[in-house]
Amino acid sequence: MLRLDDVVAGYGRHRILNGLSLAADDGCTAILGPNGAGKTTLFRVGAGVLEPKQGSVSIDGIDPYENPDIKSEVGYIPHVPSLTPNLSVRKNLEFWGRVLELDTEYATGRIDSLADSLGFRDLLETDGGALSRGQAQRIALARGLLADPSLVFLDEPTTGLDPSIRSKLLDLLRTLADSERTLVYTTHNLHEAKVLADDIVLLNDGGIVASGSKDEILNREDGTREIRVKLTVDDGTSILRELAYEPVQDGEYLQFELDDETTIEGLIELLADRGVGVIDVETESEPLQTFFETVTGGEERA
Fold this sequence. Notes:
Blueprint: E1 2-11, E2 14-24, E3 27-32, H1 39-46, E4 54-59, E5 74-77, H2 89-99, H3 104-117, H4 133-145, E6 151-155, H5 163-177, E7 182-187, H6 190-196, E8 199-204, E9 207-213, H7 214-218, E10 224-231, H8 236-242, E11 248-250, E12 253-259, H9 264-273, E13 278-284, H10 288-296
Parallel strand pairs: 3-7, 3-8, 5-6, 6-7
Antiparallel strand pairs: 1-2, 1-4, 8-9, 10-12, 10-13, 11-12
């Protein structure tokens, strides 16, 4: 459980967060906002790294600046995985176990448990520099969970992943969100928020412009979004029409409207059932700022 009340924070005279209040309970809270909205500063304040100039912060009811031991309950999964390239995955995680001052036997057990639950046991002896982007992201997730934290910050962890790996990672995160943990997750992707989040916070210019349950927030937008897909077959148009879509050819891609009832993962499964693979997916939903205006009626901050 994370609480920020009337938080003002920044760097020197440069104020980033302006009287921000946020409550994140067990489950997943998605923080959506453009670059420069204050997401990274919110993470640093919430994790007990950057002390606010005003207001209060609590993790499970404890102030991390007055009682820093509570920060052992915090995990952080960065935007770009950072692994020592010439150390094996196991050695990388053992190193972080020492940084976190975990008992050696406990850390070994956690590494083995996470290797099974996150599906990287076959990578334990592989050097960090030899991993793919998706593999490295799973190891970063394991590192963030090594101390079994109750509060986990995730900074756009799916950026750069192909659709199938992204889908698997979202499934893993949803499982974590259902395991009595608080996940605070930043993304630019409205679709990911629809799949993963329990609650959504829209952040802009250091303040919250709207917040509420996923249904409360997303029911304020319209029910379709434009997507473009690149398929493994040449007759993709006819196959998509069989699924009641009206695709338009755009180079190697087919562009069409996807209704809000169907996830991209669901579409990929429908196509796979027909023997069609998806090489790439591009979403063309309304820009985040337009979505903000739709949701808030043009108000700048709530």
